[in-house]
Design brief:
The chain has helices spanning 2-16, 20-37; strands at residues 40-42, 46-47, 55-63, 66-73, 79-86, 89-90, 94-95, 112-116, 119-126, 131-138, 149-155, 158-166, 172-179, 187-192, 204-207, 217-221, 225-234, 237-246, 256-257, 274-278, 281-288, 295-302, 308-313, 322-330, 334-343, 346-355, 358-359, 363-364, 374-382, 387-394, 399-407, 421-423, 430-434, 441-447, 452-458, 461-463, 470-478, 481-489. The protein has 492 residues and is mainly beta. The protein has three domains: 2-37; 40-409, Neuraminidase (6 Propeller), CATH 2.120.10; 412-489, Immunoglobulin-like (Sandwich), CATH 2.60.40. The strands form eight sheets. Strands 19-18-17-16-20-21-22-23 form an eight-stranded mixed beta sheet, with no helix packed on it. Strands 1, 2, 29, 30 and 31 form a five-stranded antiparallel beta sheet that branches. Strands 3, 4, 5, 6 and 7 form a five-stranded antiparallel beta sheet that branches. It is globular and about 70 Å long.
Length: 492
């Protein structure tokens, strides 16, 4: 087998006179693409709504690693529904909004969703007079919800494009476009709580010249910062900027340009950005059309000095008429970007995997579904299980569809049952493993390509200080059985 592999490459070297280093590079690239061509285990598509009414804008969060999804319906009246998964089973559709309430909803804007542990918030804008922003809160993982709690009294004024998040200290934050009753004073604003949603700050101005209908996006971090991303409108130049603050306060830095496209448009594109923070670095995706083609872009920006470290088109290929409404999930090493793409009058949901800065071919997230009109995709990544959870809307069938994606390049051949637990994950210098294991068990650590990079005797903890950043799997031989536990190594 070795001979059969090496002989063709020898012929290439001598006949084509290609440098050996370049051939090796090309070989590694081909191997990488072969690896990622089988990079995901796709779960079956699951329809999670039972009603036959028109359903809009599903959003997803996680409760103890399980997906919880909300969506809206306007037939015969506006309602917010929820379905959550527990122990591998969907618990059933439940209405969480009060009857006969007029709240802001469409296929692009509507209720916001956030979770922290067992705490779940659903926030929305009531449009009937007096207008106000409200939330409902669950402390049991979405089983029961509180009555309406007022965040901000709008009265005769307007709020558009509400978003919310929960900070690591458990306090909620809300962002929206604020306008007066005459639609003559548009501002990008933020409100936060310091007492777990009992009281709220006054309006905090983020930008005074925002794009008039592009909703803001709150940016969650894994460290000391959180942020808000918004599209600015400066003399019809519509580009995205972001401001960040310490999680302990709302002292935001000056706006940082994260969008290099310099798009000029006389109309609002009604398309927000999405992203996440890794310490002080922002990973951001958005739609722009500087050359009259609607495309999805991605950038990586240092939010402390304003340097755009990377910026590129995600994947605009021949045959595409337009791309729009992207979202992103992941971490520093692994990202999944998803977006709506129109081809031949049909709209599908496409996605692209980026691993260690390497971008790989895009694929459809709706494979197995009838492709006619897909929209409103939302993605979330679970660092503990290494699963991407995806939800979208099939407009033609009025269905809310869910699936998860498992990165298979983290997987090695091992028994499916695992009784050991690894923490912390992500890890910096050491990993600790709890559970029933034999003292002085043997261990091997594999990188994402399945290559052993470290081995030794296991006694409950393992130093990973000398490993480079990336995904790994530790395999432990325990009582003639071996177990695999994936983990992510990150820098301090």
């Amino acid at each position: 087998m070795i001979q059969s592999i090496h002989k063709p490459y020898n012929l290439l070297i001598f006949n084509l006179k290609i440098p050996i280093k370049r051939l090796l590079f090309l070989f590694l690239i081909l191997c990488s693409f072969n690896l990622f061509s089988q990079s995901f285990n796709f779960s079956d598509l699951e329809k999670i709504n039972s009603n036959l009414n028109d359903n809009y804008r599903p959003k997803i969060c996680l409760v103890d690693g399980d997906p919880l999804i909300i969506y809206t319906s306007n037939v015969p009246e506006k309602k917010i529904f929820l379905n959550r998964k527990k122990d591998g089973l969907w618990q059933g559709e439940q209405q969480i909004s009060p009857d006969s309430i007029n709240f802001q909803m469409s296929n692009r804007i509507g209720p916001a969703l956030a979770s922290y542990g067992e705490i779940v918030y659903v926030a929305y804008v009531i449009e009937s007079t007096p207008r106000k922003i409200v939330y409902q809160k669950s402390i049991d993982g979405g089983i029961t919800f509180s009555s309406l709690v007022t965040v901000f009294e709008l009265n005769e004024n307007y709020a558009l494009g509400l978003d919310m998040m929960i900070l690591p200290d458990g306090n909620p934050v809300f962002a929206f476009i604020y306008n007066d009753s005459l639609w003559s004073n548009i501002q990008q604003v933020l409100i936060r709580s310091y007492d777990y949603g009992n009281t709220f700050t006054d309006l905090i101005s983020i930008d005074e010249s925002p794009c008039e209908c592009c909703k803001p996006s709150l940016i969650k971090g894994d460290g000391s910062y959180y942020g808000v991303s918004f599209r600015e409108n400066d003399s019809n130049i519509r580009v995205f900027k972001t401001r960040i603050s310490s999680v302990t306060d709302a002292n935001f830095n000056s706006p940082v340009l994260t969008d290099h496209t310099n798009w000029q448009s006389i109309v609002c594109p009604s398309s927000p950005s999405d992203g996440f923070l890794v310490n002080d670095t922002l990973y951001n995706v958005w739609m722009s059309s500087p050359d009259d083609l609607s495309k999805v872009y991605m950038s990586k920006t240092n939010m402390l000095n304003g340097e755009i470290l990377e910026s590129f088109e995600v994947d605009f290929t021949p045959g595409s008429n337009s791309q729009n409404h992207p979202c992103i999930g992941g971490n520093k090493i692994l990202q999944l970007v998803a977006w709506e793409e129109t081809r031949a009058s049909k709209k599908d949901i496409l996605a692209k995997l980026i691993y260690n800065g390497q971008s790989f071919p895009s694929f459809s997230l709706t494979n197995g579904d009838s492709i006619s009109h897909m929209e409103s995709v939302d993605v979330i990544f679970d660092n503990q299980s290494n699963l991407f959870h995806v939800v979208y809307r099939n407009k033609e069938q009025s269905s809310v569809m869910y699936r998860y994606l498992e990165p298979m390049f983290l997987k090695i051949d091992s028994p499916p049952l695992n009784t050991l637990k690894l923490h912390p994950n992500p890890s910096q210098n050491k990993i600790f493993i709890s559970g029933n294991y034999d003292e002085h068990s043997n261990y091997v650590i594999f990188n994402s390509l399945g290559v052993p990079v470290k081995k030794g005797i296991f006694d409950g903890e393992v130093s990973i200080f000398n490993l480079t950043e990336g995904y790994y799997v530790i395999q432990i031989l325990n009582s003639s059985k071996y177990y695999r536990l994936p983990f992510l190594k990150v820098k301090e």
